[in-house]
Every structure is written in structure tokens, then in C-alpha cells.
Specification:
heterodimer; A: alpha/beta; seven-stranded mixed sheet; 8 helices; B: alpha/beta; eight-stranded mixed sheet; two-stranded antiparallel sheet; about 35% helix
Chain lengths: ~200, ~375
């Protein structure tokens, strides 16, 4: 299993109702179903990935996140997960608010635009950064809303989202000393556990 | 047909099963009735690989294959049913029937009422989707099929699959609901009512006793079918197929067929009026209008679907405006709320509601992928 999904799987309570936004081939949900007795639903828009979910025996619903999540009532899931997708949606702020409306707790991961490679690239070359965790050109990237960890935390503060837990990893999904000390400089991906500021988790 | 095409079930022979009595939802008892059906593929030794195909408004039991070597046209869902096709008859045993009240061999308005010796005609009792599902379960008993691996239907057929999941949860493992809705919208009922009015106001209708009067409401049936047909296609597919092409090439006087789409609709309408029974059309559209499984559960669809124990596949088509993707989303969301297993897909297809009968590659691949798991689950 993908290393980031393994990290997330450890954060999910057994028996939880989980919604996985941008669930890909259903790897995380398949793992959670067989190991943690989780009732999970995935969402994706790609026909091939939807077929892969069917093969994996995972519930999947074809739905574009940009159309919002109004179809789900408040607090209908214990946990809403979104991996490496936040930066690709039209309004990340609205998606985050909606995730916390329908889920008790959320887990979000995204690539860090504040990583030192990006900073060096922009300063020395004067061009949009590319890195191992950001391999696309500026014109064809699906990542239309890249941000740094600092940007994300500021958004959480402004929108009343509580960061329950955060940890950053490097490109090999390792949590090294320097990454822990200066995550916004040395972390490539961050895992955020989020809750509502009003404590209704 | 000179030779049987590859991936066809070949020549098939319809069969008839006898039943009775049945107390219908409307309160009427039918002392006896017949159901005509076809089967494709082999039932396995455990009797676990049976699949029921439910037909839509104008459908019937002949879903796949040919009735003779001279038959040019295969069954209505031949694109989906056959060896190596999505409903793979190498692995699954398919049962397809003509519903009670139909006009293709099962007991219906054209059948003789034993109490009068005349055709039932307009006195044939109202049947509902719930009634159909009960008669289908009776057929399953006859065939000694304890539970279906899957029940599959498009449009009104999908409604039957949904009702199965609610009424006989122990006898269905997968429900495949295609281009379906949990109930009709007022607009949908309105279309059905216009079609019905076209039929009943035809002077040849004779209050439904047209057989006795030696006539047939051809004009009404033709109009009903033309209207229905327009709602089954999309604006795009009609434009793509017919455009605005004029037959004579210029503005003509009189009321003859001028645009290609007119001649197409007239052809569809008149073919239909020759093969379909008007009373059956009224009965089938009524069954569509009445369908509302949530009604038995305090108008709560989540509660209704809460009865189900099977898994669901819900498929819609992007340009279907008769049973729009939003109607499928309502089913999907209710299933999620009821904590049921569901896969929901919206297929990008140009041909409106009719897409469910057509060769749409992504749609057929999705069905194949899903049914591959269904077949594997029953050891096939």
C-alpha cells in the first residue's frame, strides 16, 4: 500500500464510517474494510479508477468535488479523508468547510509549496518551481491551488478549523529530525487531522 | 440472419409457466395467469448464478438471441447479454420474462377473461411494480432459484430491481439500477398522461373494448409512442441523427412529412401501434406513475432501502432528461444514508434515456467489471 495511505489508515478508528474524497483505486478503503471493519465510501471522477474500486470491492460514487458536498447531511460520516486532492479543487476553503460539516473529523494531505527546493527554484531560476513531489509544468498541472503549510494553517485559523494533529514527512514519507523541526522548509507532504473549532467532533 | 453472430446466445425458445391465484395490490384476485419467459446460459449445481432481467415500459421477455434462423433482429438487450458480453451467459444463468399485464404472451388485457369468455380489455386489473416483483418471485420458485445473484433493469426495469431489494432482501444479492428513479416527477407523470390521453381519446379506442369492436386505436398509440420517443432521446442525438434536413429540399405546401425527424417519428409510431396493445400501454404507464417504494415507509426512502441487504450499482446517463442523473443521485444518497453498499456512476453518453440500451463503451465496461465480481462471488 502507498506509504501515505498506511499513515492515514493508522489514524482511523475501527468501525468508523469513512468518506474518501478522490479515493483513486480504492486502496485505502479496501485496507480499512478488511483490517478495521470500516464502512467506507469513496468518491472519484475517473472511469478507470471507478472500475478499479469495483474490482477492489470498494463502494465508490462518481462525483466531482467541485460540485460541492451538499448531497450529504451534517455529520453523516465519522471521518472524511482527502489525500493529495485539496490543491486540485476549485475552492479548497469551501471543500474544507464542507468536509467538516459532514464529517466529525477530517484528514487532509497536500504537497508543500514552501519546501526548500521550490523556494530555491523560484529564487535562482525565477520560474514556477518543479520538484519530485510537484512534477508538472505550470500550464498543465492539475494542482491549481498550491500552498505552503503556513498558508494552510492560516486558512484553518481564519475559518475556525482546529488542527488536532499535524506531521510532515519528506519525499520518502519519512519523518526526519530536520523535517520535524522545520516542516514548512523540509517537509514535502503534511498530514493534518482537523476538527471543528466548536469542539463538536 | 444467415449464421449466428459471435457472442450471441443463438436461437432461443420462449417458455410459459402457469400460476394462480394471486391477490393483486389493487384488491383484485386473478384466479390464474401465465408468464412467458426465456432463459440463457446454464444454472449451476448450487443454483446460485441466476440473474433476473426486468424489462422497461415497452419491453418483453425476448432480451437476447433470435427466435429463428430467419429472424433478423435480436432481443432488445442483445448488446448486453451473451457469451463474453457484460451479462456473460458463459458464467451466469439469465431469466427474462414478459411482465403480467404485458402483450407479448404473458396474461394481460388481450387474454381471455375466464369469467366472461371475452378479452379482459379495460377490465384487466391494475398491476403495480410490487405485483410484478411478486410474480417474478413466483417464477423463481418454479425455476427453483432460491436467490438471484443479481437483478438488473433499466428505467421501469430498474424500479423492479429496487422493489425486489426492499420486498425480498433474502432473495437478491446485487441490484443493478440503470437510468432509474425512486419515483416519477410530476413532469414525468405529465408525459405519461399525454400519452394516455392520446390513446383514450382515439375514437377507435371504444373505451378499451377495441378488440370486441374489431378495431385498434392506432392513431392514439402512434402519438403516445412518438411523444415517448422524443423524451427518450436527447436534443443532441436527434440533431446529430436528423438535423433539419428537408426531404424535398425546399419549403413545401401541405402537411406532408418534410423533416427527417418527422418521418422517423411517424415510422416509430406506426410500427409500435401494430405490435403493442393500447390497454397494456395504459397499464404499464400507470405502474410507472404509481411506483414509490418510500410510500410504504412513511415517505422515507432511506427507511425503505434500509430493508435491503443486497449491494447496489446505480448508473445514470449524462444526457438523460427523462430519468435524469439527479434522480439516480437521490437513490445513491439514500443508500449511503441507509448504510448500504453502493457503486454509483454517471456515464457521459449522448443518447439520452435510450443510452441504457445502446453500445456505450464505458457503460458496458462498467457493467462487465461489476458483473465479473458478481459471477466470481457465485464461483463462476
Amino acid at each position: 500500500m502507498r506509504e501515505d495511505l498506511r499513515i492515514i489508515a493508522d489514524l482511523v478508528e475501527p468501525g468508523a464510517r469513512v468518506l474518501d474524497l478522490g479515493c483513486g483505486n480504492g486502496e485505502l478503503l479496501a485496507h480499512l474494510q478488511s483490517n478495521k471493519d470500516v464502512r467506507g465510501y469513496g468518491m472519484d471522477i475517473d472511469p478507470q479508477r471507478i472500475n478499479a474500486c469495483i474490482r477492489a470491492g470498494v463502494n465508490v460514487i462518481e462525483h466531482d468535488l467541485n460540485d460541492g458536498l451538499a448531497r450529504f447531511p451534517d455529520a453523516s460520516f465519522d471521518m472524511v479523508v482527502m489525500t493529495e486532492t485539496l490543491q486540485a479543487v476549485r475552492r479548497p476553503d469551501l471543500v474544507l468547510t464542507e468536509m467538516l460539516r459532514i464529517g466529525g473529523e477530517c484528514i487532509v494531505t497536500f504537497p508543500n509549496f514552501g519546501h526548500w527546493v521550490c523556494r530555491v527554484w523560484l529564487v535562482t531560476r525565477g520560474r514556477m518551481p518543479m520538484a519530485r513531489h510537484l512534477p508538472h509544468n505550470w500550464y498543465d498541472t492539475p494542482n491549481i491551488h498550491l500552498c505552503t503549510f503556513a498558508d494552510f494553517e492560516r486558512l484553518c485559523l481564519e475559518t475556525g478549523i482546529t488542527v488536532i494533529e499535524r506531521f510532515a514527512v519528506d519525499s520518502g514519507y519519512r519523518s526526519r529530525r530536520m523535517v520535524n523541526r522545520f516542516p514548512n522548509l523540509f517537509g514535502t507532504t503534511a498530514f493534518y487531522r482537523l476538527g471543528r473549532a466548536d469542539g463538536e467532533t | 440472419m444467415k449464421i449466428v453472430p459471435p457472442h450471441s446466445v443463438g436461437v432461443v425458445v420462449p417458455q410459459t409457466a402457469q400460476f394462480g391465484p394471486i391477490d393483486l395490490q389493487c384488491g383484485v384476485r386473478l384466479p390464474h395467469f401465465e408468464i412467458v419467459y426465456e432463459t440463457y446460459g446454464q444454472l449451476n449445481a448450487d443454483r446460485t448464478n441466476a440473474v433476473l432481467v426486468c424489462h422497461a415500459l415497452s419491453g418483453h421477455h425476448h432480451a437476447a438471441g433470435y427466435h429463428s434462423m430467419d429472424d433478423d433482429k435480436p432481443g432488445w438487450w442483445d448488446v448486453c447479454i451473451g457469451p463474453g458480453k457484460p451479462i456473460d451467459t458463459n458464467r451466469l444463468f439469465v431469466v427474462s420474462l414478459n411482465n403480467l399485464g404485458g402483450c407479448h404472451g404473458s396474461t394481460g388485457p388481450r387474454s381471455t377473461d375466464p369469467s366472461t369468455g371475452d378479452p379482459y380489455g379495460p377490465t384487466f386489473p391494475t398491476v403495480t411494480v410490487k405485483d410484478w416483483v411478486r410474480t417474478q418471485a413466483m417464477l423463481a420458485d418454479t425455476l427453483e432459484i432460491p436467490a438471484f445473484a443479481a437483478i438488473i433493469g433499466g428505467s421501469l426495469g430498474g424500479m423492479q430491481a429496487m422493489q425486489w431489494a426492499i420486498d425480498f432482501p433474502d432473495r437478491i444479492r446485487h441490484a443493478l439500477l440503470i437510468a432509474c428513479a425512486s419515483k416519477l416527477s410530476a413532469q414525468n407523470i405529465a408525459f405519461n398522461e399525454i400519452a394516455r390521453q392520446a390513446i383514450v381519446t382515439d375514437p377507435e379506442f371504444h373505451g378499451g373494448n377495441y378488440i370486441k369492436a374489431g378495431s385498434n386505436p392506432d392513431v392514439g398509440l402512434r402519438l403516445a409512442r412518438m411523444l415517448g420517443h422524443v423524451t427518450y432521446l436527447s436534443d443532441y442525438s436527434m440533431g446529430d441523427r436528423f438535423g433539419r434536413e428537408l426531404k424535398s429540399g425546399d419549403i413545401a405546401s401541405g402537411h406532408d412529412v418534410e423533416f427527417q425527424v418527422e418521418s422517423y417519428l411517424r415510422y416509430q409510431g406506426s410500427t409500435f401501434s401494430k405490435v403493442f396493445d393500447a390497454n397494456t400501454y395504459l397499464l404499464m404507464t400507470r405502474a410507472l406513475d404509481y411506483f414509490d417504494p418510500a410510500r410504504d415507509y412513511g415517505d422515507d426512502l432511506v427507511k425503505a432501502l434500509g430493508q435491503a441487504t443486497c449491494k447496489f450499482l446505480v448508473v445514470s446517463f449524462s444526457t438523460d432528461w427523462r430519468f435524469a442523473p439527479e434522480r439516480s443521485d437521490e437513490i445513491i444518497d439514500a443508500l449511503v444514508a441507509a448504510r448500504k453498499d453502493v457503486v454509483g456512476a454517471n456515464i457521459d453518453a449522448a443518447h439520452g434515456h435510450d443510452s441504457f440500451l445502446l453500445q456505450v463503451p464505458r457503460y458496458l465496461e462498467l457493467l462487465s467489471t461489476y458483473l465479473d465480481r458478481v459471477a466470481a462471488e457465485c464461483g463462476q
